[in-house]
Amino acid sequence: MMSPNDKAFNRNLEPEREPGVTLANPRILVIEDEPxxxxxxxYNFTKQGYQVDVASDGEEGLLAAKEDPxxxxxxxxxxxxxxxxxxxxxxxxxxxxxxxxxxMLTARSEERDKIRGLDIGADDYVSKPYSIKELIARVKxxxxxxTTSFSENKLAVGELEINFEKHKITFEGEILEVSPTEFRLxxxxxxxxxxxxxxxxxxxxxxxxxxxxxxxxxxxHIGRLRRILAKAGNNNMIRTVRGFGYSFAEG
Length: 251
Ligand code: CA
Description:
Layout: H1 7-13, E1 27-31, H2 35-47, E2 51-55, H3 58-67, E3 72-76, H4 84-93, E4 102-106, H5 109-115, E5 124-127, H6 132-143, E6 149-151, E7 154-157, E8 160-163, E9 168-171, E10 174-176, H7 180-191, E11 196-197, H8 199-207, H9 216-231, E12 238-241, E13 245-248
Parallel strand pairs: 1-2, 1-3, 3-4, 4-5
Antiparallel strand pairs: 6-7, 7-8, 8-9, 9-10, 11-13, 12-13
Helix pairs in contact: 3-4, 7-8, 7-9
The protein binds calcium ion (CA).
């Protein structure tokens, strides 16, 4: 539930400023141990109008985030003391950091493979070496993350609405015809806008535990959902995160 005191709620009400960022001077916490990476991030994000705080190991990062939650966290995977994955898990468990967007920075493709299928709760993943322009774009997108509103048996993001009582999905008031599987798939994605789900996680959540289906099944149904949404006039609500899976973004 969102309340007017909630950061995410207020974020959504603020008019977007171009060029620059949605929030006035959003505060980013960089949890990274490599000095050259820290400098690169600090320089570029400061230039864009962000306030940048730095923690150079996992434990310090966790403490800093819990003490004074930032607007977004850039979290390195390979860290001394506590791994990035463990930091992410703990941030998701703590009450005051549960909603803070986290973008994980991973160094190698093997790390991506390890993350795939792990439910660590990051919002996005960026592989090193990354283009700073691309990273800034991903940060902006994460800060603009749409909020889901729940009310009496309804779930809504933007103009897309799910009515659980009637088992109906509408976009701009128009009813969308989806299969029961696609219904569950869309609900799963919509409940956590901006969060990246792996295909394995989606199989688990939308098809049921220990589904023996091929992960390509997910792609097929995502494809169908996209076509249904596109027909109703929306083309970009379901985003592909290359190498990781899918996430829901307000189109
Ligand atoms: Ca590192």
